[in-house]
Amino acid sequence: MPDEDKKRAAHRDLVDRVLNGEGRASAEQRARAFSNDGLAPPLHALIGKVATRPAQVTEADFAAAKALGFSEDQLFELVICAAVGQSARLYEAGLAALAAATVNGTPDNAT
Fold it and tell me: Residue ranges per domain, the chain?
C-alpha cells in the first residue's frame, strides 16, 4: 500500500474511532462537536473556540459547559472531537487544493 493510501486510511480510522468508539459522550454529541454544529450555547462556545481559536479557551468556558451537566470525561471527548473535526476539514481542504493544482498527478503549470 503506498504511503499516501496508508495516511488516508489512518486518517479515516482516527475519525471513525473518535466518532464511533466507546465513550462517555453520546455518538450524537461527538458528531455535533466534530462538525461544530448544533450544540447548546455554552457548549457551542467552548467547541467553537477549540476548533477555531484554541488559545482563547478559558476555565470559564469549561465551567459553563459543566453547568449543563457534562462530566469532565464527556468534555474531554467533545474537545477531542472538535479538534479532530477541525483538522479533518483542513486536511480535506488541503487534499482538494492539491487535486485542483495537479493534472494527472503532476503539477499544473498553466498558471
Answer: 3-104
